[in-house]
């Protein structure tokens, strides 16, 4: 059974290959235009920077060069229950310089479309064992965001050679470029 985490909580991931599932529901009628959320991954070294440009994995760069992190593709609507976008991770392939994997969700063209996380419901991040499908953990972002247009859902980090997940849930007003400025 999956462990449900609260904001700030940490939990070990005891699976060499796991999948990060991210879900959300949006109300496009509230803003009159398409509402597209995008999951992105920053793969960081000890200095909290991406270890190379290609270690920023998103809808236009679906796989990290070491083959360890793979975005399965852009979902444009968020319709339906369950995962809207997924990222597969294979820790056996991950570059030895990597110590952290940061998972963010941004709203595509948020400013032009006047959209923010105040209009997003049922956001979650979950992790399951890719091989068996068994749930490992889940974090539902209960926080009511308002003006934020980007949210760090969680991070996966290496501690004493074990990989752990932290439920982050921190939003900001900005977009992918702001995260790039921080992590590049
Ligand atoms: Ca998307
Ligand atoms: Ca959905």
Write up this protein.
This protein has one domain: sav2460 like domains (Lipoxygenase-1). 7% of the residues lie in helices and 43% in strands. It is built from two helices and twelve strands, in the order ββββββββαββββα. It has a six-stranded mixed beta sheet, with no helix packed on it. A six-stranded antiparallel beta sheet has the order 2-12-11-8-4-5, covered by helices on one side. A hairpin with a 2-residue loop joins strand 11 and strand 12. The chain is globular. The relative contact order is 0.27. The model has no long low-confidence stretch (mean pLDDT 94). It binds calcium ion (2 copies). One calcium ion binds next to strand 4.
Whole-number tally of structural domains: 1
- Average pLDDT works out at 94
What percent of residues are in strands?
A: 35-45%
Order of helices and strands: EEEEEEEEHEEEEH
* Name of the CATH first level: Mainly Beta
The helix content is under 10%
User: Whole-Å distance between the termini?
Assistant: 37 Å
Structural class: mainly beta
What attributes does this structure have?
mainly beta; six-stranded mixed beta sheet; six-stranded antiparallel beta sheet; 2 helices; 12 strands; binds calcium ion
Describe, in short, the structure shown.
By secondary structure, the chain is mainly β. It is built from two helices and twelve strands. It has one domain: sav2460 like domains (Lipoxygenase-1, Sandwich), CATH 2.60.60.30.
